[in-house]
Amino acid sequence: MTNLEIEAFMAVVRTGSITRAAQFLYTTQSALSRRIKTLEQELGYTLMKRQKGMRSIELTPEGQSFITVAEKWRLLWEEAREISRMERHLSLNLSAVDSVSTYIMPKVYEDFLLQNPEVSVSIRTLHSQEAYGCIESGVVDIAFISDDMYVSGVETVPAFRERMLFVCAADAHYPQTVHPSQMDPARQIRFPWNPEYDQWHRCWFDSRLKPWVLLDKMSFFEEFLFRGENWAILPASAACRLKAQTGLSVRPIQEGPPERLIYYLVADRPMGEPVKRFLECLDRRLRGMDGVASLLEFSSSVKETKAESR
């Protein structure tokens, strides 16, 4: 079974006749008929009904079933032909949780693309659990997550940490340094940042008292925060960016939540060159941000310590 034979069969299926299929493939009717006859001999069954006077072809039941197989063959052939092109063209598939993707990564993406124009980049926004699955399956090369777990074949490496800050409207009546006891849960816009944050939150706020709004996407956030005494606790990357863009007030927290730790995920195999270059761009970006500390230069030793603790 060859690609020419599959091509001939699919052309007849699409055009509905041997004559039109031969014209479509720029070959003769006799040559195309020979290809299909050879294919039938190799398969051991007839694909098309042949009767004199028939202008359009009619497939046998086996021919109908073979269409799916032929389409799979065509796709595999195309993938095989792409291998040599893929080897010459670098690609990077990455993902990040929503807040990191929104407030940290855009400038990193811009720098990376300017410095590496030969690399094709695919970007996704994924929750932590989804990211582990995509790394494990090879769909994503590197992912940035907030909730770490153990998955065989996936390395979880600390990337950076950042302070958690209190954010409110500029005219809200809160002290310059805010204590959790001064935060009204009924006016809270809450994000489930990570398990460590949730644990801190349970220590200070009665779980029976619901926040005003519970969000899991930063894109909805600004619409709520400008109203009166509403407040939220955000990582420094988001808080400082929003302050610069909107004039919101950002204040430190006394006895506040632990710093947020962001990890990157990679498959447990040698790191590709595009991933290394991206981490270098990220490291440069992180070192210029207030309230954020890059951990990338310590990632190897931290990874070993983390693996031993498990």
TrEMBL record:
Family matches, as CDD domains: PBP2_LTTR_substrate
Annotated ranges, domain HTH lysR-type: 1-60
Top-level lineage group: Bacteria
Pfam families recorded: HTH_1 (PF00126), LysR_substrate (PF03466)
The keyword Transcription is assigned to this record: yes
Alphabetic keyword roster: DNA-binding, Transcription, Transcription regulation
Family of the protein in this entry: Belongs to the LysR transcriptional regulatory family.
Name the UniProt record assigns to this protein: LysR family transcriptional regulator
